[in-house]
């Protein structure tokens, strides 16, 4: 399960599928493909033939927030969707990958997990033999400044793949 922030105004909100049609989605889908979680390295529209394998994409907030920063009430209002998805996928989820601090906090709040600290490549055991992996979000701000490099990013997905293969 990959948890992101919210649909991007010029990405998922425009194309009808999250992480599609924007630079964050480009980074995500390319990494999913490279590590065997997707059948192709690109995602340009909701009917482009992209098929995820052993992966599910979701969001902390469901509406495009101003300046990509949802306020606490938006996150709270949307939390029931995330909680429902987590419950539905409980039996099959092995790894939860959160993209950014807001997604990390959203997951921790949804599952009532306390005492964990966000940081890139922080790995925690959580509920019923699951693994929580925190990553920086693949935003342009993070990727253009080198806060998140391609190697750092791909290592996250390789770690997730390794955990899944060994459970």
Weakly predicted, low-confidence segments: none
- Our estimate of the beta-strand percent is 5-15%
State the major sheet.
5 strands, mixed
Morphology call: globular
Distance between the termini: 15 Å
Total domain modules: 1
Number of helices: 6
CATH class wording = Alpha Beta
Give the helix level as a range of percent: 25-40%
Kindly state the mean pLDDT as a whole number? Answer: 90
SS content category:
alpha/beta
At the fourth level of CATH, the homologous superfamily is Uracil-DNA glycosylase-like domain
User: What is the strand tally?
Assistant: 5
From the alpha carbons, calculate the radius of gyration and give it in angstroms: 15 Å
Q: Which strands sit side by side, in order, in the main sheet?
A: 2-1-3-5-4
Helix-strand sequence: EHHEHEHEEHH
Briefly characterize the structure.
The chain is 40% helix and 13% strand. It is of the alpha/beta class. The protein has one domain (2-166): Uracil-DNA Glycosylase, subunit E (3-Layer(aba) Sandwich).
Characterise the protein shown here.
By secondary structure, the protein is of the alpha/beta class. The chain has one domain (2-166): Uracil-DNA Glycosylase, subunit E, CATH 3.40.470. Helix content is 40%, strand content 13%. It is built from 6 helices and 5 strands; from the N terminus they run βααβαβαββαα. It has a 5-stranded mixed β-sheet with strand order 2-1-3-5-4. Helix 2 packs across helix 6. The longest helix is centred in the middle third of the chain and has 17 residues, at 72-88.
């Amino acid at each position: 399960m990959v948890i992101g922030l919210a649909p991007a105004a010029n990405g998922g909100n425009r194309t009808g599928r999250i992480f599609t049609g924007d630079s964050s989605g480009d980074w995500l889908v390319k990494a999913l493909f490279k590590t065997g979680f997707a059948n192709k390295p690109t995602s340009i529209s909701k009917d482009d033939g992209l098929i995820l394998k052993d992966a599910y994409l979701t969001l902390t907030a469901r509406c495009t927030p101003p300046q990509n920063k949802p306020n606490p009430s938006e996150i709270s209002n949307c939390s029931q969707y995330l909680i429902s998805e987590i419950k539905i996928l409980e039996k099959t989820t092995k790894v939860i990958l959160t993209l950014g601090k807001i997604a990390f906090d959203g997951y921790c709040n949804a599952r009532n997990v306390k005492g964990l600290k966000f940081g890139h490549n922080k790995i925690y055991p959580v509920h019923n033999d699951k693994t929580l992996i925190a990553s920086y979000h693949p935003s342009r701000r993070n990727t253009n400044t080198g806060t998140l490099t391609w190697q750092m990013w791909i290592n996250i997905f390789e770690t997730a793949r390794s955990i899944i293969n060994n459970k």
